[in-house]
Design brief:
CATH superfamily of the largest domain: HUPs
Distance between the termini: 14 Å
Largest sheet: 5 strands, parallel
Number of domains: 2
Helix content: 40-55%
CATH architecture of the largest domain: 3-Layer(aba) Sandwich
Strand content: 5-15%
CATH topology of the largest domain: Rossmann fold
CATH class of the largest domain: Alpha Beta
Shape: globular
Low-confidence stretches: 1-7
Strand order of the largest sheet: 5-4-1-6-7
Number of helices: 12
């Protein structure tokens, strides 16, 4: 089983991942339900119920709560690290009103927090993220041009969180073992796992927390919203990623 899962190529893994996550999985269920009404018509109703639940605040926040387990970083501890590692948050996008490709909104949140921590902790920065338009190079440019922060290392080959960790280890070596890890709060469990397995001592520095205490009895929180569906998608993506790591013994 493990060998089969590891042998699956990245494009196929990406397709399977999208198919298992909302809203694509909901679309598949609707298509099957309407196509085979006589036997599987109930699947369309399940899809609509699932769409509603993933789009309301209590459910979205409950999904995030299981992931956002690390508190904000302690600044005194941050100052003792050997390096700070900033993880990319998606393929850079074309912005006609600006020069060149720009980071995704997720990456920009991580970049901003890295710049803030850099002023407080003053440890060298490694940015990591690859692709045909390397995330790391884009993030390094924005850190320098927008925040006046220079990075010490650029890792521009990795395509997954696991590769972020392995390639960062190749760059930092065995001497720089303690790293401040900057990423979203919901992405932190899988990131910490990956970097610990690579041999790092990790100081989590989560940002952009989405979970908060919600009064379930307030009617407005049960009205579906697109932003809640996005939060649910991100959370389910992480649960799927953690499951994948377990299946492949990572």
């Amino acid at each position: 089983m493990q060998g089969f899962l590891n042998a699956i190529g990245l494009p196929l893994r990406s397709f399977l991942k999208l198919s298992l996550l909302p809203p694509v999985n909901i679309v598949w269920m609707l298509i099957v339900g309407f196509t085979f009404k006589a036997t599987l018509g109930w699947l369309a109703w399940i899809a609509l119920i699932l769409l509603y639940l993933l789009s309301v605040t209590p459910v979205a926040n409950l999904l995030s709560r299981g992931l956002e387990i690390y508190p904000p970083v302690d600044l005194d501890t941050c100052k003792k690290a050997d390096a700070m590692v900033l993880l990319g948050g998606g393929r850079p996008r074309s912005s006609p009103e600006l020069d060149g490709y720009q980071p995704t909104p997720l990456s920009l949140e991580r970049i901003r927090y890295t710049a803030l921590l850099n002023r407080e902790c003053n440890v060298p920065i490694l940015v990591t993220g690859g692709g045909d338009r390397a995330e790391a190079e884009t993030m390094a440019r924005v850190l320098k041009n927008d925040y006046g922060v220079e990075v010490s290392w650029i890792e521009n080959q990795s395509m997954t969180t696991w590769e972020n960790a392995q390639n960062s280890k190749s760059i930092l070596g065995d001497e720089l073992k303690t790293v401040v890890l900057v990423t979203h709060a919901w992405h932190m469990p899988r990131s910490v796992m990956s970097f610990k397995r690579a041999g790092f001592h990790v100081i989590p520095a989560p940002t952009a927390f989405t979970w908060k205490e919600i009064p379930w009895q307030k009617l407005s929180y049960w009205i579906p919203r697109v932003r809640n569906l996005r939060v649910s998608e991100l959370a389910l993506h992480e649960y799927l990623g953690l499951t994948w790591y377990w299946l492949t013994s990572r």
